[in-house]
Design brief:
Blueprint (H helix, E strand, L loop, with lengths): L1 E5 L7 H10 L4 E7 L18 E4 L7 E5 L3 H12 L5 E8 L11 H11 L4 E6 L7 H15 L7 E5 L10 E4 L6 E8 L6 E8 L8 H7 L1 E7 L6 H8 L1
Parallel strand pairs: 1-2, 1-5, 2-4, 5-6, 6-7, 8-11
Antiparallel strand pairs: 3-4, 7-11, 9-10
Helix pairs in contact: 1-4, 2-3
């Protein structure tokens, strides 16, 4: 089995290294990761500039590690091209910080998995509130053992997986979930120079249904949310047709 691992935090990120160590137990692992931090780049691709790539000392557990001076989606495209290997799965992560509810719209981690699916590969995005959690390596190994046994990552869309809040010292279990409602409001605040701004964020919470990724995250469960590439609002479409 061949697995391509990508991320949006950059090739030096702890979550990426942990994921490589975990998946090396199951497959030949290859890495294609951005040179620099690329969080919140969503599905951006580089179309006007050239993209430089280079091989570096392989991350422990990987066969090869490719560094891409581009976005997470660029890393997927170039990883698939440069390695020219028949990959069975693309895994994006482990992201530093959760990607639940409307975080998905901005996430480079989730977008990288989407890009792999667009190109015809099964794909998983995985995130953790804090990749330094002591139980994370063992839990990741256990989780992927189940995923490979069941094959639930195979399908029309991708899986978006999130570990719970770092305040929990262990995982209570796994829940299949839907995308929640919560979102992060970004307010642009002027600095001392009136033409320079920085972002100040705050959470906007809603009353969530019991089986959302937000509730699983808050209650100490790993959430697995199947996401589709299809974005048509069929309910609205039927209303318009009527």
């Amino acid at each position: 089995m061949n697995i391509l691992i990508v991320n949006d935090d950059g090739y030096q990120a702890e979550g990426l290294h942990l994921l490589v160590r975990a998946l090396a137990n199951f497959a030949d692992v290859y890495v294609s990761a951005p040179k620099d931090h690329q969080s919140a780049k969503s599905h951006a691709i580089t179309i006007r500039n050239r993209i430089e790539t280079s091989f570096v000392q392989p991350i422990f557990g990987s066969k090869k590690t490719l560094v891409v001076d581009g976005t997470p989606a660029d890393s997927v495209r170039l990883g698939l091209k440069v390695y020219d290997i028949d990959f069975d799965l693309v895994v994006s992560g482990i992201n530093y910080g959760q990607n639940i509810a409307k975080d998905i719209l901005y996430s480079g981690t989730v977008a990288a998995a989407y890009e792999a699916k667009v190109l015809g590969y099964d794909a998983i995005a995985i995130s953790a509130h804090n990749p330094r959690l002591p139980y994370l390596l063992d839990e990741t190994i256990n989780l992927f053992e189940s995923l490979f046994e069941t094959g639930i990552y195979q399908g029309d869309g991708i899986l978006n997986i999130n570990f719970p809040k770092s305040s929990f010292k262990s995982v209570k279990g796994v829940k299949m979930t839907k995308q929640g409602l919560r979102f992060q409001r970004a307010t642009y605040v002027a600095s001392e120079r009136s033409n320079v701004f920085h972002i100040k964020s705050s959470l906007v919470n809603f009353e969530e249904e019991a089986y959302t990724d937000v509730m699983a995250f808050n209650e100490g469960y790993i959430s697995i949310t199947p996401l589709t590439l299809e974005r048509t609002d069929f309910k609205r479409l039927r209303e318009l047709e009527d």
